[in-house]
Amino acid sequence: MKKLIINCDDFGWDAPATQAILELGAAGQVSSTTVMANFAGDADLRTLARLASPAFSVGLHLTLNAGQPLSAASAVPSLVNSEGQFYTSSQLWQRFLRGQVRREEMKAELAAQLHRLAGAGLTPTHADSHQHLHQYPLLGPALLGILRELGVRRVRRLTAAGRFDGRGLVLQAFAASSRLALRGFATPGALVSTFSTEPASAAGFRRGVATAFRGASVVEFMSHPGVSERAGSPLMRVPEYAFWRSGEASEILRELGGQLVSYAAV
Hints:
The protein has nine helices and seven strands; from the N terminus they run E-H-E-H-E-H-H-E-H-H-E-H-E-H-H-E. With 266 residues, it is α/β, with parallel strands linked by helices. Strands 1, 2, 3, 4, 5, 6 and 7 form a seven-stranded parallel beta sheet that branches. It starts with a strand and ends in a 6-residue tail after the last strand.
């Protein structure tokens, strides 16, 4: 039987995302989440720890490109701007390519993010990254090497399955650049990102999962639900939240011959 992980990114990013993920996870309508440890509040992490189980996995949403580090800015100066905030994804990548980012500082910050989860009673089952940093050319392999050193054994495999738009082709190129660095990690065979480019719907879910199941036995569906939208974000969070709440996904998954699993099944 085919297996599907529905992973909600961005736990802790803001209250609307966190609320949606906690509700959907408690109802069994999604099976996994990844935490932005430098944003998540202590109370939300404690609530999430009570929800974590073999059926609902919790991982790290590696973040070096939004907000401020958990480490002191003085301890990771190559990662932050003059205001002590992380650089944007493109800025971080360009700085890395120019040799302006220190590997030991990235490792220190990722260790701090993992430690934040551990301090809340969470043992991360897997990791992915904000805006797919862990599969950027050259930067991605460096981050994957650090995750391996820190004991992470399961990660998201970016494939942009079924996406043939301009961004999808770029993501596929990024995925190819980090293929060798993924060796030794357990990963789903495909990633479905349908809801990143169109409002959530039964038709979109069915199309994305059916396409991915043709080439992989374990598939991850990336989701970004929220009880309200986030200003300035292209994500359509409320339609995703409403779709998962409807329960339609479970029925479609059964029709496709699949079962919902957590990252523990990878």
